[in-house]
């Protein structure tokens, strides 16, 4: 593929992001996601902290019995969410942070589905 073609494809992508208002949408949905995750944290002691930047989120899992227990709980949550067809990851120096990185067109309905699945998964693990 030529450099010129790659350049045009990148310009097209930037044009789509701008014309469809995906940046503003990500900020709006990100705020809603933050509210939902913080509400969930208020109901579950397993959530120690929620950090959100746009649509990227980190949900820190508490370490009641040390870093190993939080890492195991985080892995269990990642697997429980995978069974519900929601792909998230784990990160952080102790492996106890759920990493949520949805796509730009993520919607309020998607946030609701994610937080409902996470709530069920928290109860199960």
Structural account:
Strands 1-2-4-3 form a four-stranded antiparallel beta sheet, covered by helices on one side. The chain is of the alpha+beta class and 125 residues long. Helices cover 58% and strands 16% of the residues. Helix 2 (22-43) runs parallel beside helix 4. 21% of the residues are buried. The protein has a single domain (22-124), classed as Aspartate Aminotransferase, domain 1, CATH 3.90.1150. The model has no long low-confidence stretch (mean pLDDT 93).
The percent of residues in helical segments reads 55-70%
Q: What's the CATH superfamily, by name?
A: Aspartate Aminotransferase, domain 1
Strand order of the largest sheet: 1-2-4-3
Sheet-strand content, in percent, reads 15-25%
What's the Cα radius of gyration? 17 Å
Total strand segments: 4
Structural class: alpha+beta
Do you know the CATH topology? Aspartate Aminotransferase, domain 1
Any descriptors?
single chain; about 120 residues; alpha+beta; Aspartate Aminotransferase, domain 1; 4 strands; about 60% helix; elongated
List the helices and strands and how they pair.
Blueprint: H1 3-19, H2 22-43, E1 47-53, E2 56-61, H3 67-83, E3 89-91, E4 97-100, H4 108-124
Antiparallel strand pairs: 1-2, 2-4, 3-4
């Amino acid at each position: 593929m030529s450099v010129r073609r790659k350049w045009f494809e990148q310009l097209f992508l930037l044009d789509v992001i701008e014309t469809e208002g995906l940046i503003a949408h990500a900020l709006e949905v990100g705020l809603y996601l933050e509210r939902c995750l913080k509400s969930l944290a208020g109901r579950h002691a397993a959530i120690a902290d929620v950090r959100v930047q746009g649509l990227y989120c980190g949900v820190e899992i508490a370490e009641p019995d040390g870093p190993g227990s939080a890492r195991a709980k985080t892995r269990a949550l990642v697997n429980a969410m995978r069974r519900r067809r929601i792909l998230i990851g784990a990160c952080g120096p102790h492996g106890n942070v759920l990493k949520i990185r949805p796509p730009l067109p993520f919607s309020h309905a998607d946030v609701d589905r994610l937080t409902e699945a996470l709530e069920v998964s928290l109860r199960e693990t």
